[in-house]
Design goal:
The chain has 182 residues and is of the alpha+beta class. 32% of the residues lie in helices and 26% in strands. 31% of the residues are buried.
Length: 182
């Protein structure tokens, strides 16, 4: 059975840091996970191995989805879909009006399925060598946003994840909250 767990704000789960180090490089995950206001979620596969992690925090009037990562060996199996739906559900349950993230340009279509749209291009950080992988990846980032009323938790990817038992069907998740408060 696939299991997911939200850690309390300020928790520093080593399993998430390991996934982020594997996915983004050693500097990213271990620094970001130390934010005392952030919540971290991890997913475990059928064998109990942590295969995906995401970070959610509130800043500048919006909830931010950060460091969404799936181990290479587990990609294409619906973990990213489940993780983004978990993060969106958590943000909306806590009254989010806007949800933002930064994404490599090549991943934009994945997030657009959930109602995100491009709001800004992000430039290379000054002082970073153009030869480093981090600066190349950073150069192609875009900032995306979804307003609470536009968030879509049911999409083609959700169907496949639900069919494999990765959580409640999208319709059930959608019924657990009303982002408009009506």
């Amino acid at each position: 059975m696939i299991t997911g767990k939200w850690f309390p704000p300020g928790a520093r789960p080593d399993e998430a840091a390991l996934i982020w180090e594997e996915t983004f490089g050693s500097a990213d995950g271990s620094i970001r996970v130390r934010d005392n206001l952030a919540r971290v979620a991890c997913l475990r596969d059928d064998c109990g191995q942590c295969v995906a992690a995401v970070r959610l925090y509130y800043a500048d009037g919006a909830y931010w989805i950060d460091s969404l990562a799936v181990r290479e060996c587990a990609r294409g199996q619906g973990y990213g879909d489940l993780l983004i739906r978990m993060a969106l559900d958590m943000a909306l349950t806590h009254g989010a009006r806007a949800i933002r993230l930064e994404s490599p340009r090549g991943c934009a279509a994945f997030f657009q399925r959930y109602g995100f749209y491009n709001i800004d291009d992000i430039d290379i950080i000054e002082g970073v060598s153009a030869d480093s992988a981090a600066s190349i990846q950073r150069a192609s980032l875009i900032q995306m946003e979804a307003m609470a009323g536009d968030v879509r938790l049911s999409c083609a990817a959700s169907r496949s994840a639900s069919a494999r038992g990765y959580g409640a069907p999208a319709q059930t998740i959608r019924a657990q909250y009303n982002p408009q408060g009506e």
